Amino acid sequence: MEQAEIGLIGLGVMGSNLALNIAEKGNRIAVFNRTPARTGEFYEEAGSLKDNIVPCETIEDFVAAIRPPRPIIIMIKAGAPVDEQMALLEPHLQQNDIMIDAGNANFRDTMRRFDALKDSGLTFIGMGVSGGEEGARHGPSIMVGGTEASWKRVEKVLTSIAAQYHGEPCVAWLGENGAGHFVKTIHNGIEYADMQMIAEIYGILRDGLKMDAAEIAAVFAGWNRGRLNSYLIEITAKVLEAADPIGGRPIVDMILDKAGQKGTGKWSVIEAQNMGVPATAIEAAVAARSISALKDEREAAEKVLGLPAVPPLAVSDKAAFIKDLENALLAAKIGAYAQGFAVMAAASREFGWSLPMPTIAKIWRAGCIIRSQFLDEITTAFTRDPHVANLIVTPAFAAMVRETDGALRRVVSTAVLGGLPVPALAAALGYFDSYRRGRGTANIIQAQRDFFGAHGFDRIDGADSHHGPWGSGLGTGAA
Ligand SMILES: NC(=O)C1=CN([C@@H]2O[C@H](COP(=O)(O)OP(=O)(O)OC[C@H]3O[C@@H](n4cnc5c(N)ncnc54)[C@H](OP(=O)(O)O)[C@@H]3O)[C@@H](O)[C@H]2O)C=CC1
Ligand SMILES: O=C(CO)[C@H](O)[C@H](O)COP(=O)(O)O
């Protein structure tokens, strides 16, 4: 039997769709799954693509079915399962075979795995894949990290399966070792912020303006035809339109308000904090998911505290306010993306990757969950100035912030006065207001630090004195 050009382990949601995509693009692929019954089931469902698929029940058969040097995609649950799978696979591999972890790995695990294989003759690629089930099947966005030589060996097949944006494939080599998984992590961090901000706007429409799901769906569908055009806005309109098969009410009204999270959002925030980069909108989004998970505590707290005793939302012109909501969402989105890109710029320096910002924006324009028209504008901004300190000071985005931040301010103020939680929108606004203010208030913090801990400070006039005239440094207030 003709050998396959590539192998794939893990026939779950992502792996099975990726395998079908690979087969459909004319590549012969060997597949393996820990639970063999799934392999048979997958093969039976493959229809006309069966000719390009070699189903294997044992690791030995799987490895033998692939032509050396073998590229093998591992698309399984992230974390320890990947180490276990690699350990099972490794003894069967030969010089120059490549293991490609395509799951949502923590990039620190990817760096460890990359280093562990460095002198073994085997190669490791850490590859972020975005687009969910449909993207994996018809064209995901793919973020590759590893050696450039190993990328060259998989470039053709990955290019054949990636999404296309006006003829340009949404796949790229982004740097050594953990670069691809780091970029995927930040993609997801931005995804968390995007989703949370949409949820906050939904909350204002539902709880503030008392609109029903169908009315809110129409608002999002309208926005999807404008500057907010994006996959996440599109699917938000669709989920709001969908009816519950049991009972016929809008399905969103039947879904428990507890959000799951698998780790990428949290890792984005941890890494941002490690590098001292403010990613406040992403942090707020991660924290909001954690608060959402405290359903029982929230219900108990509502019984103790009640909802805020505030008047109903002060909105005199509903149409104008909905226009403000659209602009506020755009402004806040700019803040979240600016933060995500700033985290990647810092990581690029920290880990020596030379992450290509215009390329990252380019490969996110199609295929991935945060795909949008907006990313084309980010691509243009970073292409003009790849090393700009922050997206919001590029001419195009500075103009957009100036145009929309008033709406964000009005929306956040209205929501706060109406007792509606908008932590991610408020975080984006706070970020703009802090970042654009040349003279902030940290002089007080520096003085306090010097007062109690003799930490010293820099002076605005550059003079030499680095400590304040605090005397003993002992306060006289309460102990
Ligand atoms: N779903 C999504 O939208 C996206 C998911 N991802 C990432 O892709 C990866 C796969 O996700 P997804 O396809 O959704 O997951 P699924 O839950 O659908 O599938 C999980 C797969 O992992 C296998 N697996 C689990 N534990 C082990 C183990 N210890 N050893 C070997 N195989 C194991 C399962 O095999 P078995 O059948 O034997 O249980 C199954 O094939 C994850 O890292 C996920 O974060 C990335 C982008 C999008
Ligand atoms: O990577 C993805 C999308 O890009 C996956 O769907 C991931 O599971 C999303 O993260 P979480 O489950 O934490 O919401």
TrEMBL record:
Residues bound to NADP(+)? 10-15, 33-35, 76-78, 104
Q: What is its EC number?
A: 1.1.1.44
Catalytic reaction list:
6-phospho-D-gluconate + NADP(+) = D-ribulose 5-phosphate + CO2 + NADPH
Q: Which GO molecular function terms does the record list?
A: NADP binding; phosphogluconate dehydrogenase (decarboxylating) activity
InterPro entries, per database record: 6-PGluconate_DH-like_C_sf, 6PGD_dom2, 6PGDH_C, 6PGDH_Gnd/GntZ, 6PGDH_NADP-bd, 6PGdom_BS, NAD(P)-bd_dom_sf, Pgluconate_DH
Entry's Pfam families?
Answer: 6PGD, NAD_binding_2
Keywords (A to Z) from UniProt: Gluconate utilization, NADP, Oxidoreductase, Pentose shunt
Q: What positions does the domain 6-phosphogluconate dehydrogenase C-terminal occupy?
A: 180-471
Q: Which residues form the active site?
A: 184 (proton acceptor), 191 (proton donor)
Q: Where, by residue number, does substrate bind?
A: 104, 130-132, 187-188, 192, 262, 289, 449, 455
Q: Which GO terms describe its biological process?
A: D-gluconate metabolic process; pentose-phosphate shunt
**First-level EC class:** oxidoreductase
Q: What does this protein do?
A: Catalyzes the oxidative decarboxylation of 6-phosphogluconate to ribulose 5-phosphate and CO(2), with concomitant reduction of NADP to NADPH.
Q: Which family does it belong to?
A: Belongs to the 6-phosphogluconate dehydrogenase family.
Protein name in UniProt = 6-phosphogluconate dehydrogenase, decarboxylating
- Biological source species: Mycoplana dimorpha
